[in-house]
Structure formats: C-alpha cells, structure tokens
Fold each of these.
Amino acid sequence: MKIVISGFYGFGNTGDEAILEAIIDNLRTELSNPTITVFSFSPEQTAKTHGVKSVYRGWRRDNKEKIHALRNADLLVSGGGGLLQDVYPTRFLFGPLPYYLLIVFLAKLCGTKVMFFSQGIGPVNTKWGKLLMRVFGNMANLITVRDEYSKQLLQHLGVKKPEIVVTADIVFAFHHKTDDACINSLLLQGNEQLIAVSVRPWFHHRDY
C-alpha cells in the first residue's frame, strides 16, 4: 500500500515529529511493507530519520514530485495534530488551513483517497476559512479527530459527508524505544521515573 503523509513535519518541532514517528511505526505494524512518502520542510532529514521517501512540502519547488506522489498513492493521511485552524494568517493560498486543504484537493484530483487523521480542529473563525473547511472537508473519505469538540466543530462548519470518528491523539500509540540521551545528559542512574514538561508562551496567555 502506498501512503502519503501531510502535516507539520520537518520543522524541528518535537511534538509534531513524535506524531510522525508514531504514525509511521503504527502503519508499519498494521500493514505489510507500506510505501510511505512524507511531505516535509526538510525532506532529506525526514527520509534519513524515518527510512521513508520524502518530498519538499512547500510550493516553491518540487510541485511535480508532490503531484506524482499523490497520483501514485492509495491514501493521503492528513494529520495528525492541529493542522486545520486559521489562528495564523489565512489568505487566499497562505496559512496552514489553505495549505493542508489544497493538498487534500490535489489528492482528490489525482483520484487518491483522503483521511483526516487524529486531528484537533480549530479554531476556524474567518469566513474564508469556514468556506474552505466546508468545501474541502467534505471531500475526505474518512475523518478521525482527537476530541469531541473537533467533531462538533466540523459538523457546525458543514462537514457532513464522511464519517467523523472521535478517537485519540496518535502519540498515545507511540512505540516505546530505548533512549539513554536524557539519562546521560542529566547524570541519572537510569532507574528513576521521570516526567518532562516543556512550557511556552501561548498567544496572549502568559500568566502561568
């Protein structure tokens, strides 16, 4: 089976890279020798890290390669994470919402099935964003979201044709791997039970 994965990959974001790793590992567990292509901002690094094919995700180059990958794929997996939102600037073809939905549209033009996978939807506040979601969201063959709010928002936006399934964030299916990097860097013995929390400013919320 040939699968293309589209998401916020290749930017060095630890959370999104964990999502990608979890998707790839679970696909390889469930399917027999899937051929996986990832649209990435750093295709060489993504290919090397995960042992997959990778194509530059932006529109500045490699557009023929993106179309070729979609045309030859059985399925486009759009996700996971919070891709479909217009908090960041959403103009005609710029911003995350138009980008990811345009990839969906290209896949459908190529005759490829589309799955919105383990996504957190929203916020979608602009008229343009709502229109895009209604038109292109209904092109998906299957939608899974990571919370009930996302399902309700999609339905409110007029996405009704594909089945919408509430599941969980794919990182909960992350395959455990031995990694001694943190133990070595923190001079730990290796038998401690640790939880790491990384906080960052979130828009105007800085009171924490």
Amino acid sequence: MRKMQLALLALGAIVLAGSVTVTPAAAHDYPWCAQGGEYDYPGECAYSTYEQCQASVSGRLLFCGPNPLVAYGQVQQPQPHPRRKIRHSVPY
C-alpha cells in the first residue's frame, strides 16, 4: 500500500513538473512569410531571413513574401483589459 502511494505521488509530481514547464507558443512577428498553397494570408511567418524562407518553401509550390505586420509597422499592441464595474451597496 505504501509503495502504491509513493508511485502515485511520484507520477503526480512528474505530470505537474511537465505541465509547469510547458509554455504556450510565443507569437513572434518574423519579417518573412511562406505564402501560397495551404496558407492563408499572410502565410506562415516564421522566418527571420529571406534565405531561411527560401529553403523552407523549396519544392513546396510556395513563395516568400514580407510579413505585412512587420513591413508596415502594424504589430498589434496588447489590448487593455476593461475595468470591472464595482457596485457599492447603498444603505437604505
């Protein structure tokens, strides 16, 4: 019984450690996008250099184009959270 509890505790610790280290994918705005084919506009914008993009699209019937968010300075700013309305109780 004691071994089972230790095994479950160890398993729980491993799962917790794994979930803590997992972070969501960061949204980077790289300057080059693979465009065409299966990608909607602006495409797969995951390339820091034109050469990286060219190597990725080679043989895939895609082409490289500039990321419009980077090229035209339209990187989205984080939206502020709306303020919560606080209700004050009014004594009668």
Amino acid sequence: MSNPAVRAIVTDIEGTTTDISFVHKVLFPYAHAKLPDFLRASAEAPAVAEQVDAVRREMGEPDASLDAVIAQLLHWIETDQKVTPLKALQGMVWADGYQRGDFTGHVYSDVAPTLRHWKASGKALYIYSSGSVQAQKLLFGYSDEGDLTPLFSGYFDTHIGHKRDVAAYQRIVAELDLPAEAVLFLSDVVEELDSAKQAGMQTLQLVREGTQAGNVHACVTRFDEIAL
C-alpha cells in the first residue's frame, strides 16, 4: 500500500499493535484477581465512586450493594464485555500493576520502530481501542519498548462510540479536523474496518497469527510492510 495523502494514522490495539493473548492472559486475569480488594479499599475515592455509580446505572439498580457491583464487574470481565465503567476501573487496577512492575505492555517488535518512523515523517498518530484511554496510555507508557506515549497525538475509546459504529469513525474524523480520506485506520477486525471505510477513511487489515483475512480491505502481516 502506498498513498502519500495519508496524514494521520489511527490504530487499534488488540491483535494490531499488541498480542490479544497479553490482554486476555495477563491484563484481564490481573484485573479479575485485584478488582474486588481494590474496590473495597477505594470505593469512597471520588474517581472510583463515580465509576461504581456508572456500573449501578448500567445494571439498572441505583441502590445495588458494592458486592453486587463487584459481582457484575467480574461477570463482565469473564464474558469480555465492552462496558465503559468496567474499562475505567480496570485501568485503575492496571495502573497499579504497571507501576509495581508486575508486567509491561506488549507490543509486537515491528510496531515501535514503524511508529517512530511515521512520527518522524510528519504523520499524526492516534489510538482507538475499546479499552479506556487510561488503559491505552498505560500499555504504551509502560511498554516492552519503553515509553511510547510521546509518539501519539491523541487517544479514543468507547466514549467516542463503539468500534463497529460508523458514527464513531465520523466523530474521530471530525475531531482530527482532516478529510476522512487522509486518515488511515488499522485493525485486525473486518467489521471495524468496514465501519471506518463507510466513514470515508482509508483502511488496512493487520493479519496477525490467529486473524482471518477478509477480502474487502488490503492486508499486511506487520507494521513494517505498510508503505506510506
């Protein structure tokens, strides 16, 4: 792929910059194990209380006990639900884990050098993931390759919309204040790419191990195969 009109690149995380197994075998189990004690210790803190109330609203039970909230959060983790307050609370727990050095954020070896090259060549780089902005910044801030956050101009999560909704990509384009065709979206998920394409973006599928290639979007297996 080569298109000099690309001025900004928006990339997904899971399956694109980062092995899905890191999220499912490291981050999710860590949050599942640590979240109950974290909430019992910190439920009164304003930032935590705000998210606990948001969970109660999602449950439709404004008076739910903290134990009921914890049970709901654990169920959402077990069933991989993309619920915004869960993502926010997971991010708080992961922050502690990253800062303690319990793990570092996985990025594929081809990602960081390519991102640095794109940044140096004047491309604006953004993340769009179902994980919270906080969780995104932690993963790249404490990555295997060191702190990559200076490479990014911004981050988007489900607050802008869900990743299979065309409207979310339209909002991202509006935020970037660029023509849609000047924005390239990278993901491993065909349905996300379909929505980005409908919003006018350029699209490219990352076909990592375990990913099925679609037949609508151009495909690469590594970031360093992408020629801009």
